[in-house]
Prior knowledge:
By secondary structure, this protein is of the alpha+beta class. It is 51% helix and 13% strand.
Amino acid sequence: MTHFARHDLGTLAERAQRVAAVASAHAGDVDLQARFPREAIDALRAERLLGIQIARELGGEGEGIGAIAEVCCALGQACAATGMIFAMHQIKVSSLVSHGEDSAWHRAFMQRLTNDQLLLASATTEAGIGGDLRNSVCAVSVSGPDAHLEKDATVISYGTHADAILITSRRAADAASSDQVMSVVEKGQYRLERTHDWDTLGMRGTCSEGFKFVADFPAEQIFPKPFAEIAAQSMLASSHILWSALWYGIAADAVARAQAFVRAAARRQPSGAAGPGPLRLAEAVNQLQAMRASVVAGIKRFEEAKSDPDALSTMSFAVAMNNLKVSTSQEVLAIVNHAMLVCGILGYKNGTPYSLGRHLRDAHSAQLMISNDRILNNLSTLLLIQKPETSLLA
């Protein structure tokens, strides 16, 4: 395996900022054309950021959820589609890191991922179940060392650009819909037939098209642990934390544009004639600070619990992570909208230094990615038996 000197690339923050600069330069065209952000993903590879979560002994850097979230935040301030692709990739990597260590094949795949900077996609949604990732219609068929899988996947984000797809299915044809496994299927082992286009309001660069997925692959690429464990112990927290960090990045850039607008207005106007802009900016900063506190608290809670699989599977942890997603997905919209009120028509128009149309359109996806209604409905069931937390410190 080829080894790369990470110190030659600089700190993680410096590497993330260089990618963000590339992403920002192409964000407008990515959004306009609804195209894959090739330049930014190439920059992620050049900066060796796709494998940073993987253990050092496997060629990675062993970075935790906080460091990954910080990169998502930086990318979110530049190009939300790029940030979302990076977040979704790292969510899949978290499953490998948390649940692939005991499998020789998955360990070798993690080494190749870091060496070759492979991009991972996900196929958990399916016709007939929508976004309910904890149920599957399709089933994997295993015959000796070989496996076969067909799935009508309503969404595989950047599926045609990925190097491998992590896909869920029932464990066998006679298994219950919730008795699932997840498989790592590499490019060349599957065929994709496009069934749905991606012409959307926002997040246009994620290219989240639908496909008929047909694959033949070695059965050893199926994770040895049930998907129920993978979902509860790695995917739930990493999804909601990394998405929230990305949404915070969108909100932070919107507030920065609003602040620049207020400063420019203050330079043009005499003292006392600034209008409501500064007050609204102060309100937006207050909202942004509250959102940041929620994300930081979510990261801290996950880092404290991640060494204990039982803690990760508790109802209180699931409630906390789901509440993080619901709250931040609402807050990002409120903050961007507030920033637009500050910037007025120059925020509403495209092509100005204060334009916020792309931010607002991208932010509207937040409540739909695993629908807030679905999450709240599940929480309402949990709260029939789970007492809400009433202590600040316990």
